[in-house]
From TrEMBL:
Location relative to the cell: Cell surface
InterPro entries, per database record: ComGF, N_methyl_site
Residues spanning the membrane: 21-45
Organism: Pallidibacillus pasinlerensis
Keyword list, A-Z: Competence, Membrane, Transmembrane, Transmembrane helix
Organism taxonomic ancestry: Bacteria, Bacillati, Bacillota, Bacilli, Bacillales
Signal peptide: none
This protein's name: Competence protein comGF
PROSITE patterns reported for this sequence: PROKAR_NTER_METHYL
Amino acid sequence: MNLGKIGISKNVKKCRCSTGGFTLIEMLLAFSIFSFLIIFIVHAIPLLKYHAYSNETVDQLHWEIFLNQVKREIRTADQIYLYKRRLDCITDRRIIYEQYGERLRRRVNYEGHEIILFNISQIEFEQINKGIKIKIVHKNGKTYEGDIYFPNEIPIYKG
């Protein structure tokens, strides 16, 4: 039985194709990259909301920073001079917090001019039991109050 000879045209070239498809390692790698991207996107979306701080939120953050700075300086003070609208902390230097127009400023040894808070209409310092109460009224009418308690006996002199 002669089936004849089947010839291949000279214009057709043989190609070597892999029929294996994706390997398991390639699939796992693609899945892990996809998973990391999804995790990153899910956790990054709430961070996008942080840029939309309102003025009230920014004022609250400024107040918290101010209060922590004053706490640190008061707790290291040897003496405190308390005025109605001014606070002096005495260590090896004199640190003064006082209202300056619509700002609260910090000075060291009556020098410098570091602005701590903005848009202040009123500030009051008051002695309480084993500490000091600070009350600030913002220009928008919001009142911020904070109590600072002393870890040890620090003499307070009223001016």
